Amino acid sequence: MFEDIFDGESATVFLTQHDVNIVYINHNSGEIGACISGDELHIIAKNLFDFFCKLMLYKI
Questions:
Q1: Run of H or E residues at 54
Q2: On the CB side of 40, how many CA atoms lie within 13 Å of its CA?
Q3: What is the pLDDT of residues 36-52, one digit of tens each?
Q4: 45/47 Cα distance (integer angstroms)
Q5: What is residue 49's predicted lDDT score, i.e. its pLDDT?
Q6: Higher-confidence residue: 28 or 53?
């Protein structure tokens, strides 16, 4: 799935909870934080700091 979306770049899964995968993707020197629920990809941040800040907000 990720290979099709990101042209062969790999994705690192940080957390899996309640069927939602939280991933951080380094793609062509661009950084993307995302939530994947089922087959849907939801971009939540463009850099690592914002990514982890938003994860903390979602956990509250």
A1: helix 48-59
A2: 5
A3: 666 666 666 666 677 67
A4: 6
A5: 72
A6: 53
